[in-house]
């Protein structure tokens, strides 16, 4: 009987020891969980990291502050990009990066908008000069004890709506003509449909007339086009008749239209604070009226 009581007492002691150990472990885990702070998030910058008149890339800088004395793991993120309160683009990305203890890190989230798709999807924006956006993102961290934890961050603002300028070639005007030389003006029209000004930094071009290269070079530097403005542009061209051939002289003294091909590249700046520089390619061909001869 005494032996049985001793065994019961020993078993009870072991159980009590296990319970104390488990309780101590749970208490320690709870203390650790309580001590782990969630990272602090903020969208510290939004910028246009690239654009042409068909697409624009926005980059959002999300600053992550880790207030803990141990490093944290960023597992993934997602985002929802809205324009005028309508979702246009959603995305998600695995990240698997480490945020150092008591450190800061910047997550760069690129968002690319195609304007043709945008205007088809949200037709009310087709004639708009700008749109209000809302950038919503959830960052998922693998936190000690807490496991996978989502933390939201957001930013609101506005961005310009872009439309491609139109370029038309109107005429070739003869200013001076001799058997050795011809001074011409290639007259064009540049139509800017956007709500911001455009600055032509330069236009690299090549002009063929009736299949022969008549001119190439750079022109129109520092030419400004106002918002929603259509402006006449003239490119001065000097021809050496002796180099091109007497056939050019006959064409310039004739009365018919010329077959032309113009290819080139505009380097453009803008007056919008978010938009820097971009290129606009030109490839035009057809019949060209000859004036002034």
Explained architecture:
This protein is an alpha+beta fold and 293 residues long. 18% of the residues lie in helices and 59% in strands. It is built from 4 helices and 16 strands. The strands form 4 sheets. Strands 10, 11, 12, 14 and 15 form a 5-stranded antiparallel sheet that branches. The chain has a 4-stranded antiparallel sheet with strand order 4-3-6-7, with no helix packed on it. Strands 13-9-8-16 form a 4-stranded mixed sheet. It holds the Pfam family LEA_2.
Output the keywords.
WHy-dom, 293 residues, 4-stranded antiparallel sheet, 18% helix, Lea14-like, Immunoglobulin-like, alpha+beta, single chain, 4 helices, LEA_2, 59% strand, 16 strands, 2 domains, 5-stranded antiparallel sheet
Topology, element by element:
Blueprint: H1 2-35, E1 40-51, E2 55-65, E3 72-83, E4 86-99, E5 104-114, H2 115-121, E6 130-143, E7 147-160, E8 166-177, E9 181-191, E10 198-209, E11 212-219, E12 223-225, E13 230-240, H3 241-244, H4 246-252, E14 258-270, E15 277-288, E16 290-291
Parallel strand pairs: 8-16
Antiparallel strand pairs: 1-2, 2-5, 3-4, 3-6, 6-7, 8-9, 9-13, 10-11, 10-12, 10-14, 14-15
- Taking all residues together, what is the mean pLDDT? 91
Low-pLDDT ranges: 24-29
The tally of helices reads 4
What is the level-2 CATH architecture name of the largest domain?
Answer: Sandwich
What is the general shape? elongated
CATH class category of the largest domain? Mainly Beta
- Count of distinct structural domains: 2
What is the end-to-end distance?
Answer: 133 Å
Main beta-sheet annotation: 5 strands, antiparallel
Beta-strand content estimate: over 45%
Structural category: alpha+beta
**What is the radius of gyration?**
34 Å
Total strands: the figure is 16
- What is the percent of helical residues? 10-25%
> What is the third-level CATH name, the topology of the largest domain?
Immunoglobulin-like
N-to-C order of helices and strands:
HEEEEEHEEEEEEEEHHEEE
Please, what is the oligomeric state?
single chain
